[in-house]
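Quick one, tokens below. Sequence please?
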């Protein structure tokens, strides 16, 4: 029975699970929100790695045959360690700087991500590859994760929090904005309202879903052999997780 584990520091990874289920609708998933320890973005790489191990152990104990690290921060901090320590495939997130760099019309790309992601070697390497071709402006989405975790996706308060990090990127001239944290797609309707028409937002989740399908195939993990569905688990209260799941 092949179960696919998916985890994030909170409910943000549901934005990835949504894309995965569009192309692999008949699988069985266990989604784990580590919200007792959320946000990961301000924690040390060591702490995030320790949590990623603990969550992986739990997903394995529930039969996961592969794990999607549906969190940019945990991918940057921990995926190399997870791959070295466990004998199952892991699929992680990567800020979509490459498609942004090839899609920008004016050569200015904005990246919204957590502090942990923006200082990680993984991101700095990607950025280094495109730094000659485009100008990259970055901002931490300050308070964005908290908005999503409290299901505040559309209030005047949410708008001012989102504007606080998005506006400087727009002011710097970015015409393409990379969503470098899996919580941020839930704030996309708000971001689209704030940003002038013509600004493109890029979410890597559809590419991650395609990558998962390839990885499962390469690893020979059988598809469609379990009752399809999603089990939602959390290390803290699961109210937001369940609510967000219903509006996916
Ligand atoms: N959703 C996560 C990410 O993609 C982490 C957010 C956080 O816990 O800070 O980076």
């Amino acid at each position: 029975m092949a179960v696919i584990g998916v985890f994030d520091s909170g409910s943000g990874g549901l934005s990835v699970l949504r894309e995965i289920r569009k192309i692999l609708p008949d699988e069985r998933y266990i989604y784990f929100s580590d919200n007792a320890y959320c946000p990961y973005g301000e924690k040390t790489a060591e702490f995030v790695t320790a949590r990623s191990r603990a969550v992986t152990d739990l997903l394995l104990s529930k039969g996961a045959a592969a794990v999607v690290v549906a969190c940019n921060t945990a991918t940057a901090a921990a995926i190399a360690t997870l791959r070295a320590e466990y004998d199952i495939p892991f699929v992680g997130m990567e800020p979509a700087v490459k498609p942004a760099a090839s899609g920008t019309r004016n050569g200015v790309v904005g990246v919204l991500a957590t502090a942990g992601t923006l200082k990680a070697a993984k991101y700095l390497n990607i950025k280094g590859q495109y730094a000659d071709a485009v100008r990259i402006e970055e901002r931490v989405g300050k308070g964005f994760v908290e908005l999503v975790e409290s299901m505040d996706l559309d209030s005047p308060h949410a708008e001012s929090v989102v504007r606080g990090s998005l506006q400087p990127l727009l002011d710097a001239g970015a015409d393409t904005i990379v969503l470098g944290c899996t919580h941020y797609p839930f704030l996309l309707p708000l971001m689209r309202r704030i940003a002038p028409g013509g600004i493109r937002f890029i979410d890597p989740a559809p590419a991650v879903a395609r990558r998962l399908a390839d990885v499962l195939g390469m690893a020979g993990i059988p598809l469609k052999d379990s009752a399809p569905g999603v089990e939602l688990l959390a290390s803290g209260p699961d109210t937001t997780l369940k609510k967000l799941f219903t509006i996916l």
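Residues 78 and 196 are 36 Å apart (CA to CA). The two ends are 26 Å apart (CA to CA).
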